[in-house]
User: Fold these one by one.
Assistant:
Number 1:
Amino acid sequence: MKKKRWPRIFGIGALVLILALGLFIAYAYLLLPDVKLQDITAEQTPGRIERGRYLAHHVAVCMDCHSTRDWSRFSGPPMAGTIGKGGEIFDEKMGFPGSYASPNITPYHLSTWSDAEIYRAIVSGVSKDGSPLFPIMPYPLYAKMDTEDILSVVAYLRTLPSIAHEVPRSTPTFPMSLVLHFIPEKAQPQPVPAPTDTLLYGGYLVNAAGCIECHTPVEHGRIIEDLAFSGGRTFQLPEGLLTSTNITPDPQTGIGSWSEEQFVTRFKVFLPSQYSLPTVPPGQMQTNMPWTMYAGMDTTDLQAMYHFLKSVKPVQNMVTRFKPFK
Ligand code: HEC
Ligand code: HEC
């Protein structure tokens, strides 16, 4: 008699587990993400639009991902006439769990969105219909930006020429399709530090610019905080394997021996007024670092970023920047 009871208890146990799992999944799909819309509007003032343009093109580089990049030229500058049009694909071939397309962020797509909805998408990764966005767009970093800065970007987006361009919806694969529901969180805005407070101000810009995303190795899709800015993240480009460099202050393998001027010049040479970007023949080094966009940053902002990066923990890590596929 006793022997028979165990299978039944296991059976009930398994049933309870399956039920709990089902409830958990239903909870995630039906009730998450749970990020409420804030009562905010982005009134369009000239100052805001100008600040928004600066951030969208040169700091947070929204237009790096939401425009069509000209990969025949070094660092893939965004092409004129495609600003905000979307349609860049990030898929499994590049190591992403699914296929993600950058949406159109010109008024063609966003004119029916409220300012609060656009704000929430940028800082929390929740689309207008409440669905979660994949953090290819570094919204956990934008979440720490000054609300006024994000509203400036929103005000600027409203001024973009509308481009009629339909973008396919993203299709995350399981289990990412489930995990995504747990990622969006409320923004934790911090005010822009005073520019005289160089380290804090530089840190604010480095966060907004997403440098950490590309310049830190990842494990299971997450950056390894302990190795922040030490480089070594790899990207499969058609031309070869690209690896981000070490931008910690390590003197041998990082930027420890760079002067402030060297650092600033490394960016400023990519200004269109200084330099005509070469085309990249097959097999030659190509990069995804949006040099031409960051080159438009104010010199004082680049200097502040330099001082912040010189203050982070040095990590020794020598990388080979580019290995062409033969
Ligand atoms: C590294 C690439 C990248 C950067 C930088 C980036 N985005 Fe995105 N953005 C994306 C991708 C990809 C998606 C879609 C994600 C998905 O479908 O899961 C997206 C989604 C959005 C959405 C939601 C649209 C919708 O229909 O749901 C908005 C709005 C948006 N981005 C605006 C911005 C703004 C403004 C910035 C700059 C502050 C920015 N993005 C920076 C890649 C990027
Ligand atoms: C989309 C990914 C990406 C982003 C975002 C990015 N980088 Fe890079 N960066 C790279 C890659 C890849 C390289 C190596 C190839 C090259 O030199 O272009 C690189 C190279 C560099 C170098 C040259 C280092 C050397 O030893 O020559 C510096 C300096 C640098 N990045 C700083 C930054 C800073 C500061 C930020 C943020 C403002 C940033 N990067 C954002 C990908 C990125």
Number 2:
Amino acid sequence: MRKSLVSVVLATSALATVITLHTLTHNGARAAAPELTPAASVPHRAAYTQDGRLQFPDTYREWVYLSSGLDMSYRDRGMDHSMFDNVFADPTSYREFMRTGTWPDGAQLALETRGATEKGSINKSGKFQNGDMMGVEVHVKDTKRFAGGWAFFAFDGTTPAAQIPTAADCYSCHRDHAVVDTTFVQFYPTLLPVAKLHGTVRADGSP
Ligand code: HEC
């Protein structure tokens, strides 16, 4: 009994510390010590610059892997490159999705695109991902921060990215065709059955 009380107190104070650090860095109220950067102190939470740019999510490669698409053509990119896209969700929101069938506030999904190659090493057929990183885009849910609930960001390297204006086709395609809360869960095989179970798939969606 006594032991569990102690651990609750410890956990609570640890949480308070984390929140305080995050608020300080988030508001830019004072420069964070190097070891207290948002990525180090609050892994996987979205962090913004003072002027509202999203910081590059340094840890996204440690998030939960959802799916890869190969040469999916839903965008006019002029398919001169063959490429994979890899989709990841931050771990806290992934667990919440598994529990509820939808995304909590704070959810972040990253889509990374990489060049696809046929020739290399022992490969005889099929394609693998080469090292050419072609970009990272992030979809963030924050109903307090963004009108419409979600915002898109496209990164050029690791420089903080401004929100893509809501008139962009990112928003309309995701709103009109994605089946769970503007995310393309119809293409994420571990999430789709969970969303179906919870009845969170759009009624008019066709997975
Ligand atoms: C014509 C439709 C369409 C448009 C326009 C579009 N997307 Fe998507 N987006 C998709 C599809 C389909 C997927 C699923 C990819 C997969 O399965 O690998 C996706 C997935 C994503 C994801 C992964 C998380 C999620 O929401 O499912 C991100 C991030 C993303 N898109 C960002 C963008 C950004 C940024 C833009 C605008 C620059 C954009 N998209 C424009 C169709 C679209």
Number 3:
Amino acid sequence: MRYHIIAALLMMALSVALSACNRGETQLPPPEVITSGNAANGEQIFNARCTNCHATTTEMRLGPGMAGLFGPNGPTRPPGVTYGSNLPNGQPINEINVATLIRSGGQWEIAYMPPQSLDDQQLADLIAYLKTLE
Ligand code: HEC
């Protein structure tokens, strides 16, 4: 009897651990997908999902404008914000890290960005578009 309870508890722990792993994987789109997006589709997704909070210029809305995101200095942020040439979460600015941040959202020095539920192709298209914003 005791062993059944222990076995049941182990199974529960295992399934919790496995679902945590799966969540981790869905946070990271495969690199070959993320670098092969379509910028025209990405522009439509951006206009539908991001423009309330982000301009395509250096203008600040709730979040920073996306111009220059993939440039050497990153996007233009309000004075005093300390991310430098990294993302708010401290990661270097590259396709995978930007895609991961868009999916996860978060709260750093400026304001809260809600997680964005987008599939891998939509994320790739968005990245391709964001790279055109200089
Ligand atoms: C409800 C408002 C909101 C929406 C919608 C939103 N964001 Fe954000 N986003 C923010 C805020 C606020 C920040 C700044 C977070 C911080 O630094 O504290 C941010 C930060 C970012 C950053 C990091 C910028 C930097 O400083 O390096 C990127 C990239 C980004 N958003 C992309 C997107 C994209 C792409 C979309 C659309 C799919 C999107 N966001 C939708 C509010 C939003």
Number 4:
Amino acid sequence: MKKTKTLFIIMLIISVGALYYKNIVFENKVNLGHYLFYENKLSLNNTKSCGSCHAPQFAFTDGYRTSVTPLGDILPHNAPSLINASSLKYFDWANPTITTLTQQIKRPLYNAHPMELGFQNAYSDFMKFVNSDSLYSNLFAKAFPFNRKIQKHQIEEAISAYTMQLNSYNSRYDLGLKNNFLNFSNSEKNGMKLFNSSTLKCITCHAGKNFTLASVSMNTNDVYKNIGLYNIDYSNNYPGNDNGIYYHTKNEKDKGKFKIPSLRNTSKTAPYMHDGSVATLEEVIAIYARGGRIETTGIHIGDGKTNIYKDSLITGFQITESEIKDLINFLYTLTDSSIEKNKLFINPHLILP
Ligand code: HEC
Ligand code: HEC
């Protein structure tokens, strides 16, 4: 009897110890990932890192219409915010085959057409650097204590582990959820009512605590929508054959369908949409109110309102000037101003030890 009791205590100590150790190692992995996320040496010409296109002052976007690579190539899409990306069931604007962060980060690291970070070209120089640098040697040894030789997959693993930690729910809206919106002005309350209304229907697609069905549903018909931004030459196409998930599914009805983005921190993430083609929230609302965007001059002539692939929820609505203000004031309550001050989020290379 005494023997089994002793054995039980020993087992308990071992499991608690292992669990504790596992947590420490995970924290070390996140810490390493934090440095790597902001490491310009991961790019082929040492000029950009993940943090160049996903910067905390823009809620982890970059402020460009569409992103620019280290070689100066223009990517087709606008950089999405990474805040609460750990909640997503699908990653990137229009790739239903990417369902995990580990899969996703291979694209910025290795994509060659166009070249993004071009880590494959920076790899051997980076390894030489890391092995001779005391900060990184130490960070790697702590994150991967049983494996002294640094490997590529460890770099990917650490960056994914870090990116999964970019969670923040400290907006005035989050406070409102706790205090029955006592902290909201009348205008903000009215904006919230409009957002949830059956006339505007914003909440139908921008649903759940991250304001996107992409964090709620696995069904691609829920997650990807054509909101009538284009109808090039009245052919029902989007520009440059950038027809959303149609590229992957080859199903005509999927033309122009892009992922519903989160609306958290939109006051910091302009310009908007998959191609950054909408500059302000006023313009966004005008497009929804009209039931699609019309272009009468330039190379994108056509009326998105009559695009046959447009979602049936985008029917247009009447809205007054003061209601537009209310709706925008509500969207502003989704801004989390703690992001820029969070030590876990900002560039660790800039913080003196
Ligand atoms: C040159 C700019 C650039 C760099 C560098 C970059 N990204 Fe991105 N990132 C983008 C763009 C643009 C997209 C959208 C891609 C698309 O859908 O076509 C994106 C998408 C993402 C997404 C998907 C988010 C969502 O809402 O679906 C994640 C996660 C991400 N990037 C993480 C990273 C990480 C981690 C790194 C570093 C290894 C990185 N990015 C480097 C521009 C960049
Ligand atoms: C049918 C689903 C649907 C409805 C309804 C809807 N949205 Fe969207 N929303 C989307 C999709 C999809 C996108 C991205 C479209 C693209 O880039 O092609 C988007 C983009 C946005 C963006 C840009 C965000 C960014 O970071 O680029 C804002 C802001 C926005 N919607 C607000 C609203 C508001 C306000 C309403 C209500 C008036 C609304 N949405 C109704 C699906 C919807």
